[in-house]
Design goal:
This protein is an alpha/beta fold. It has 18 helices and eleven strands.
Length: 370
């Protein structure tokens, strides 16, 4: 596993499901990661948790992420992932979600750096593939110990380290601190992977070069525009029309149908994910380098608010920008039931007439809302 010069798809809870990873592969992704799996649940042979370690045959460079506070759980989950084809195993030490934090995992590990280092060391000895670690800058702004943690992780034998440029307390409320990421990358000899607020190809290349990180990782940027991988590789934007984007979303529905099966139970399972994805798809806006590169240097576009009055937009474009959850559910259902992309577009236009935008909804759009 080479951790340098790569663009990683982040391990996205709920969003990093297998069909979505396949969609990213179809649009230029090469290195993918599965959703975080609880180590103790893998030990209990939980079917839902074991499913998170499953990769598709198309995923030739796949990493599994586990959350654990005990070495026995981490190693058992890592071995289960290796059995299922993982090229490496990542330890989650950055997740800010309350459920994982209260169990002593995720970002909580940053408050116990010596324990974290011991855990990593045991994983390195017990798992026959490289072990990486994903961290945040610290627990709070006043408790930023990422440099210390990074040193301990490297000394424990980790093959790579991903740094998300925020603290646990900040969640996603602040712009990612790429200066801190750059400092950590300069301090370490193992590959450091930078993560945070990468939405366009030009922001990605500029932060990559200036920070000196070995690689970069895409999270919300990939959820909003799964074709971001190809844009980064080609160093140019693809600004798809509403019809082209709907065809991409239809492809995701087809991949979900293949994965979950084309029956009522399969549809029920897919509807736990597909409407959720539209919470991110609806945030897409064309952000050309010619117009936005300078402003992106002042503040990341992921954290910027844009005027969006809806004027001069097609019916389908307005539909795809609509943020209403009830509309996302309807749109997901029609994609599931449509026989092809053309039929899906016709049905979507009909849905737009049935559920027109609510008066007064136009205004500023925050790409990173939620």
């Amino acid at each position: 596993m080479d951790f340098r010069g790569r663009v990683f798809l982040a391990p996205l809870t709920k969003g990093g499901n297998l069909p979505f990873r396949r969609l990213c592969l179809a649009h230029g992704a090469v290195v993918t990661m599965g959703e975080m799996a609880y180590g103790y649940q893998v030990v209990r042979r939980s079917k839902s948790e074991l499913a998170l370690l499953r990769k598709h045959a198309e995923e030739t460079c796949f990493g599994a992420q586990v959350a654990a506070s005990k070495a026995s759980d981490a190693i058992a989950a890592g071995l289960a992932a290796v059995e299922r084809g993982a090229s490496w195993v990542d330890l989650n030490c950055g997740c800010p979600i309350h459920d994982i934090v209260r169990r002593g995992m995720g970002a909580t590990m940053l408050q116990r750096p010596a324990h974290l280092a011991k855990l990593v060391g045991e994983m390195v000895k017990g798992i026959p593939v490289p072990v990486s670690v994903k961290i945040r800058l610290g627990w709070t702004e006043s408790e930023q110990n990422a440099s210390e943690v990074a040193r301990l992780v490297e000394e424990a034998g980790a093959a790579a380290l991903t740094v998300h440029g925020r603290t646990r307390e900040q969640r996603y409320s602040r712009a990612a601190d790429w200066d801190s990421i750059a400092r950590i990358a300069a301090e370490r000899t193992i590959p450091v992977i930078g993560n945070g607020d990468l939405l366009t190809w030009y922001e990605t290349h500029e932060r990559w070069q200036k920070s000196g990180v070995a690689s970069v990782m895409l999270g919300r940027g990939a959820l909003i525009k799964p074709w971001l991988f190809r844009e980064i590789a080609e160093k140019q934007a693809w600004e798809p029309t509403a019809s082209e984007r709907l065809a991409v979303y239809f492809d995701l529905a087809r991949k979900m149908k293949e994965h979950f099966r084309d029956d009522e139970k399969g549809k029920e399972r897919a509807m736990r994910f597909l409407p959720w994805h539209f919470e991110f798809f609806c945030r897409y806006r064309p952000l050309s380098a010619e117009r936005y590169v300078e402003s992106s240097r002042q503040h990341p576009l992921m954290q910027t608010r844009f005027e969006d009055d809806g004027g001069e937009l097609s019916v389908l474009e307005r539909l795809l920008r609509d943020s209403r959850p009830e509309l996302h559910l309807r749109l997901a259902e029609l994609l599931w039931s449509s026989p092809d992309a053309a039929a899906a577009e016709a049905a979507a236009i009909g849905l737009a007439a049935e559920m027109p935008p609510v008066a007064g909804d136009a205004g500023e759009v925050a790409i990173a809302h939620g």
